[in-house]
Write a structure and sequence with these properties.
The protein is an alpha+beta fold. It has 4 domains: 60 residues, Arc Repressor Mutant, subunit A; 51 residues; 81 residues, SH3 type barrels, CATH 2.30.30; 82 residues. It contains 11 helices and 11 strands. Helix 2 packs across helix 3. It starts with 10 loop residues before the first helix and ends with a helix.
Length: 330
């Protein structure tokens, strides 16, 4: 049985090995490097040429010694210079990758981070494990991702392939089959969603990945509309659910809650208006009211709906049902 070919190091790792060899004052020639790095002579010559011509390292070939050498001292391998603030931002980004856990992106992003960290070791001395203790993230209700669902959907999105899957709506046991042209995968509110064109319903739909099962990629190709944009699709949604409406949602917050409201951007369309006694009014343009109702109820008595009237009526009905439920259990 033929042996599997060995995988060579990435180009940056190879060049840093060459750099270390040149700094050691040992005889560095192509024969030795091809054996050590397990690549062809052509690859070694190309790497050295890049180090000399693109990175401005003082490398020359000494014909008397039959080896490469540095003609002047080189303290470190040229890398990207970053500030402490930029380094911290990189570390924060690495910590924030938790939302991608369980997807192929998580592994690839971890590899990318490790490469960046390795390239910076000659420029800045740091320990990612130590630095990451200075920041933390806590996402409540982090969505679970099934790779058996995510992988074929992400491949279908990239290749513009029609998919067939079973989809269960909330509160139902049935999971009818759906035929969909997958346009985009989005992570919203700590959960993965698929935006796709439902062939039977002839309309764009949003599908929560945990409710999808039995994904099958068909060989049927589709063309995604040039004017499709996930930013536009979610523009009138507070979280995930957009809509065809155009509601001017206005909420009045108590002084105690106003400061917390000011600290965040809740929607791209938001407008804040200061009121007397420290109260605050938040205005947003939304396409649907369902998510707005759930969000407002989360503020309890600190938030009051000013408009639209139908949202205020919905909140009143919900409060009445809650009152009845809690009174029945006392």
């Amino acid at each position: 049985m033929p042996s599997k070919p060995q995988l060579s190091r990435p180009p940056l790792a190879r060049m840093m090995k060459i750099h270390d060899a040149l700094r050691s004052d040992a005889l560095v020639n192509c024969t030795k490097l091809t054996r050590t790095l397990e690549v062809s002579r052509k690859t070694i010559v190309r790497d050295i040429a890049f180090m000399r011509d693109q990175l401005d390292l003082p490398i020359e070939f000494d014909s008397k010694l039959g080896a490469y050498r540095y003609t002047s001292p080189v303290s470190s391998f040229p890398t990207v210079n970053v500030t402490e603030g930029e380094l911290l931002a990189l570390l924060v980004a690495q910590r924030a990758l938790e939302q991608y856990r369980g997807t192929p992106f998580h592994h690839q992003l971890e590899i990318a981070f490790d490469k960046l960290a390795g390239a910076l070791r000659d420029t800045i001395s740091f320990s990612p494990a130590d630095e990451l203790r200075t920041v933390s993230f806590r996402n409540i209700g982090l969505g679970k991702t099934d790779l058996a669902t995510f992988n074929p959907l992400s491949a279908a999105v990239l290749r513009h392939e029609e998919v067939v899957f079973c989809y269960r709506k909330p509160g139902t046991a049935q999971a009818p089959e759906r035929r969909v042209h997958p346009y985009h995968l989005a992570n919203r509110e700590n959960l993965w969603y698929l935006i796709g064109f439902d062939v039977e319903r002839q309309a764009l739909r949003t599908f929560a990945l945990p409710r999808i099962s039995g994904v099958v990629r068909t060989k049927s190709k589709f063309e995604r509309p040039a004017d499709f944009s996930p930013e536009t699709f979610f523009a009138n949604a507070l979280g995930v659910l957009g809509g065809t409406g155009n509601y001017r949602v206005m909420i009045r917050f108590s002084a105690a809650a106003a400061e917390r409201v000011r600290e965040r951007e809740w929607h791209e369309s938001q407008k804040l208006r200061e009121l007397k006694d420290g109260e605050l009014e938040l205005e947003m343009r939304l396409g649907a009211l369902e998510e707005a109702e759930q969000w407002i109820l989360g503020w309890g008595a600190a938030a009051e709906v000013v408009g639209p009237p139908e949202l205020r009526a919905n909140i009143q009905r919900t409060i009445a049902r809650l009152t009845q439920r809690y009174q029945a259990r006392t």
